[in-house]
Amino acid sequence: MRMYDIIKKKRDGEELSTEEINFFIENYVRDIIPDYQASALLMAIYLKKMNERETLDLTKAIINSGETVDLSDIKGIKVDKHSTGGVGDKTTLALGPMVAACGVPFVKMSGRGLGHTGGTLDKLESIKGFRVELTRDELIDNANKINIAICSQSSNITPGDKKLYGLRDVTATVDDISLIASSVMSKKLAIKSDAILLDVKIGKGAFMHDLKDGIELAKEMVKIGTGYGRKTIAVLTNMDEPLGYGVGNALEVKEAIETLKGRGPRDFTELCLILGSKLLILSQKVKNEDEGRTRIKEVINNGKAYEKFLELVKCQGGDVNFVENTDLLPKSTYIFELKSNKEGHVRSINAEEVGKCDIILGAGRQVKNSPLDLSAGIVFSVKVDDFVKRGDTLCYIHSNSIEKENEVAEKLIKIIEIGEKNPVEKKLLYGEVTKDEVKLY
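The structure corresponding to this sequence follows.
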């Protein structure tokens, strides 16, 4: 078998066999196939596309390029959740403990932030001593003991994806649905949970900017998960504006803790109820979403969800004092209050531009190894459709640099668009994708 023939076959629009896809991934990971040939095949895939079977085979080949994590020693139906990335998306921090408090094992290997989207691991490291690196035995023990473990991925998991993504990033082949889907799902399926919930973000702050593309990506990922024998569903959610009010690592941890205590922002709390009810259905703990929502609300109201977060922090070496007294979390030297210079309704808060402001403040990273300012970020006082008067507070900018604070203030006053009321009320949830149907709301 020759790489030349595989490239030519896909260039001409033909279907690649399972053996050809396996040959490519195995030999590329082993550095036998050079980058220039891998680039040629990626471009051929980008232009000629892959069908459902090819995409599933590509995902399997990437999974098989490294280690997998067997969770069979964890009792019960294990669930996992993945978000395609957003601004202010601290969902795992609150949702995981809620689900675990309902008696469902929630096991998640998370990532760090890159670009304008935040990372769960960075947020958790705002808590003094919290360990994100766990051995397999520690992960299993924690999940059996308290029903939850959140940690980083081993460097030996899906090395094929790591190599391919680096190449796609510099060859203009990132935004292909088959390549995106195989990248996301290979990482999720390498961790052998029983059920996967995908939160596909759509909007200005998401990778998928419009609903049509979001649906196609969700369908592809659900097909892969189902084809791999896992119960998989996807929800399509709004990422035009930041989720909740807080954007920035320690600020988001604080907001997640408040949500676990029943005092969270309305949109963020609602998203946790939506996703939580679906995870409880997947775990067979409840029969329908109403029952699931009731169970999630119960563990919030009786304090068990908050207690579960305390258990998580303690089990992973964190100082629970930082949870019980959030004033101990990293704090910025300067907090600037940005006020409205006009009266009207908030028409939009562009999530992507807010994420870029977070990077300027030091709360996000442009490249993988950039140092982070865990205290920096933005706390909004308004949401889209709110009415504001001249002089009302729009947000608070947390920074350790007056220069950066001033730069971000100048940008945010333009990003927070104020004017006539939007003619159509915003949606948090656009729909749901299962193996059987696409349901839009």
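The mean pLDDT is 93.
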